[in-house]
Amino acid sequence: MTARFSRGFTLVELLVVITIIGILIGLLLPAVQSAREAARRVQCANNLKQMSLACLSHADAHGQLPTGGWGWGWAGDPDRGFTDRQPGGWQYNILPFMEQEALYNLGTGGNRAAGKARSATPLVMFNCPTRRKAVAYPFAHPNAYVNTDMANPSVIGRSDYAACAGDGPSEVNPRFPDGYPESLQGGDQAPLAAWEALWGTSNDATGVIYRRSMVKMAHILDGASNTYLIGERFLNPDNYYDGYACDNDQGWDLGYDYDVNRWTGAPDQPLQDRPGLAGCRTNFGSAHAAGFQMALCDGSVHLMRFDIDPEIHRRLGNRKDKLPISQGF
Fold first, then answer.
1. Facing residues of 230 across strands?
2. Cα dihedral sign for 77, 82, 86, 88?
């Protein structure tokens, strides 16, 4: 009888197999990561699409694009409508057009605790998955909101998107020459000249959503397909989560501020997120390697290059300069 012996792998053969598997993983991993980022970027573009359509639905319903609100420290107020009397910003004002009417109505009747709960609510639509998850983040700002109980220590829902306030000055100080409007009544009673003395009002703003804005589609003289509406904003990765950067210390439920508005002027060229860039950044930008995404006033969403021509970028942020824009950006 002939004996049969089973033959296993030699050590050398096993090492060769492991090496081949390692090489295959090394080749496949970048492709998998690229596919995942492409999917995240598509989700981010869809967020912008839904928000831009909500802005346009707001314009159809109320005659103008959502107002930019009063300034930092002011949350939305469901009792004050959709005009320049509304202290809350554009993301608060589009909630009813995103099937979030119940969230919009939190705080009715001056219920400050309910208003705080609204401000602390994260929304998937307001966060880009390439950058961070839609969860509540620390609210570390030393100043409480004027019209809710939002105060440190607490948590807040943040946004990775901003409305275009124009190509002009990017100052967001909400203080009148003779003092801060410390109440809703004070803001209502302030003369127009006091509001217009602030940067970022109809006196100087060239974008479509700014302080107390009430921009009609007819006011977009350059055409809806040639004007930025909303887009991704630059953030320093060092401060994605802590709430200490002055351009990332507030939330989505906020009036005109660096957290919810951005600009396109000469100092405000788009940037890819990278650590080390401190300060109150006013740039559009993103965490994507491929570019940053912008929704135009016609509702279309475009992937823009970080090295877009600075003059074209500036013109896209101005609704009324009547300067030509090449269709390819």
1. 163, 295
2. positive
Q: What is the pLDDT of residues 202-222, one digit of tens each?
A: 889 999 999 999 999 999 999
State the average pLDDT for the chain: 92
Amino acid identity for residue 220 in this structure? I
Q: What total of structural domains would you count in the chain?
A: 1
Nearest to 228 by CA among 295, 306, 326, 304: 295
Q: Which two tokens stand for residue 3?
A: 């004996």
90 vs 300: CA distance, rounded Å: 18
- At 87, give phi and psi (nearest 5°): -75, -25
pTM equals: 0.89
The whole domain housing 94 covers 12-316
Please report whether residue 301 resides in a domain: yes
The Cα–Cα gap between 313 and 304 comes to: 9
Q: Using the 8-state DSSP alphabet, how is residue 200 labeled?
A: T
Provide the residue type at 16 as one letter: V
At 284, which amino acid appears?
F
Domain membership flag for residue 169: yes
In this structure, the number of other CB atoms found within 10 A of the CB of residue 329 comes to 16
Instruction: Kindly state whether residue 198 falls inside one of the protein's structural domains.
Output: yes
Specify if 307 maps to a domain.
Answer: yes
